[in-house]
Amino acid sequence: MKSQWDFGTVFGLIAGIVCIYLTMIWPEKEASNIILTKDDGWRFEQVSWFFQPQSIFIVFGGVLCATLVNYPIRAVIGLGGVFKNVLLAEVFDFNGMIENIVSLAEKARKDGLLSLEAGLNDIDSVFLRNGIELAINERDSNRLRTFLTMDLNNISTRHIGAQEIILYMAAYAPAFGMLGTVLGLIIMMNKFQMSGETSSIDFNVAEQFKALLTGMGTALITTFYGVFLANMVFLPIAGKLKRRSENELMLKNIVLEGIISIHGREHPILIREKLMTFVALSERTNIEKKEE
C-alpha cells in the first residue's frame, strides 16, 4: 500500500474556492442589458465584503469548541494527522497483494509453514506480516480467524471514529454560522433602534436603512462561512475517508482470507482464484489480458 499526493483533493478544494471567489467579484449588469460593455469591470473590492474576522472567529472557534466538548482532546488533536492523510492518496494494489500471498503459499506448501518465519521482515504489509506470524504459532484455524477478525474490526472502528468526528464538525459549522448571523442581527437591530430614538433634527431615515441593510449583509456572511465549511471541506473529507477505509478493509480482507488459506495448506492456484473474487470484474479482465 503506497501513498502519493492526492491531486484530486487539492484541485477540488482550490477549484471550489476559485468558484466562490469568482462569484464574489462577478460584475453586475442592468437587468435589461444582456451584453456586457467594456465599461463593465471586475469588482475586486467586493471580496473585502466577504472577509469578516468576527464571522471567521465564531464559525471556526465554535466548531472547534463544540468538537472538544463532544470528543476527548486527544481525538481532536489527532485530526491533524487525518487532514494530512486526506491530501495523500493511498494506492491499493489488490493484484500485487494477491501475488504476494500466492508466493507465500507456494513456499509454505513446498517447505512448510515454518519456512515463512525467516522472511517475515521482508513483508511490507504490517497486517500480512503479523498474520503470517500468528499462522505460524497458532494451530487452530478458527482461533486464527478470530484473532485476525478482531484486528480488522478494531481498524474499522478507528476509521469510523475519525469519520464521525468530521461529520459532526460538518453539522456544527452551519449551526454556528446561523448563530453568528442571529447575533449580528440582534446587535444591528439594537443599534438601529438606538439611532432612531435620537432627537437630532438631522436624523436621516434613508441613511439608517442603508446602515441596516449593510449590517444585515455583514451578519449573513457568517452563515456563508458555515455552509461553505460544511459542504466544501468537512463533508467531502468525510466521504473521502469513508471510501479510503472501504478500500483498505477490502485489502485486509484479502490478506485475512489468504492467511487462512495458507494455514489450511490450500493449493496456491485455488488461493489465487479465491482471492481474485475480491477484485472487480473489469480489473480481473484486464489482469487476464496482460497475462495472456
Could you list some keywords that capture this structure?
single chain, 292 residues, mainly alpha, two-stranded antiparallel ribbon
Overview of the molecule:
The chain is built from ten helices and two strands. The protein has helices at residues 7-25, 53-70, 73-77, 79-86, 94-111, 126-137, 141-196, 205-263, 268-275, 281-291, and strands at 2-5, 88-91. Strands 1-2 form a two-stranded antiparallel ribbon. Residues 28-42 have low confidence and may be disordered.
Q: How many domain regions?
A: 1
Q: Report Rg.
A: 29 Å
Strand content: under 5%
Unreliable stretches = 28-42
Global geometry: elongated
Q: Tell me which oligomeric state these chains represent.
A: single chain
Helix and strand sequence: EHHHHEHHHHHH
Count of helix runs: 10
The description of the largest β-sheet is: 2 strands, antiparallel
Helical fraction equals over 70%
Order of strands in the sheet with most strands? 1-2
- Strand-pairing-aware structural class: mainly alpha
What is the number of beta strands? 2
Mean pLDDT comes to 78
List the helices and strands and how they pair.
Elements: E1 2-5, H1 7-25, H2 53-70, H3 73-77, H4 79-86, E2 88-91, H5 94-111, H6 126-137, H7 141-196, H8 205-263, H9 268-275, H10 281-291
Antiparallel strand pairs: 1-2
Helix pairs in contact: 2-7, 2-8, 5-8, 5-9, 6-8, 7-8
